[in-house]
Design goal:
It is found in: Cytoplasm. By secondary structure, the chain is an alpha/beta fold. The chain has 8 helices and 5 strands, in the order αββαααβαβαβαα. It has a single domain, classed as 3-Layer(aba) Sandwich (Cytidine Deaminase, domain 2). α5 (92-100) links the parallel β3 (82-88) and β4 (105-110). The protein is globular.
């Protein structure tokens, strides 16, 4: 699924986060885990994604990996100009995908609920921006309170 920017809204980190947050909310409305992502290149949203573990019974469709899959095959030169925008700090799997494709910048909605591989990203030269967005925090806190077993499953805990 690809979304095109229709105004300058995604040219800012907060504008791009709004796109990812809409994906997170859509995922929650489908009964899934509310984590969304957007791949932004040159001010344009190339793809969006959301955690689809529940909807597709998939162990690997987190927001970022779904977004990358939706972007399809891209040349390295495109990834090298990309920003991965995600509503929640990326887990080790999503951190690895960001590193594998050489995405140089990650914008994170919040990292209070879950602190992923931010230090690894930074240690590998990736610019990491944490917005500490109240809407992202509230969405995840409400979800974790309502669905603790599903949340623990998503992050690989019992």
């Amino acid at each position: 699924m690809t979304a095109m920017a229709t105004d300058d809204g995604v040219r800012t980190d907060r504008g791009a986060l709004a796109v990812a947050l809409a994906e997170a909310r859509a995922g929650r409305a489908e009964g899934g885990i509310p984590i969304g992502a957007a791949l932004v290149v040159d001010g344009e949203v190339l793809a969006v994604g959301r955690n689809r573990r529940v909807q597709d019974a998939s162990p690997i469709l987190h927001g970022e990996t779904d977004c990358l899959a939706n972007a399809g095959r891209l040349p390295a030169s495109v990834y090298a100009r990309a920003t991965m925008v995600t509503t929640l700090s990326p887990c080790d799997m999503c951190t690895g995908a960001i590193l594998l494709y050489g995405i140089p910048r990650v914008v994170i909605g919040e990292n209070r609920t879950f602190l992923g591989g931010e230090e690894l990203l930074r240690s590998r030269g990736v610019e990491v921006v944490v917005l500490d967005d109240p809407a992202c925090v509230e969405l995840m806190r409400d979800f974790v309170a309502a669905e603790p077993a599903l949340w623990n499953e998503d992050i690989g805990e019992d």
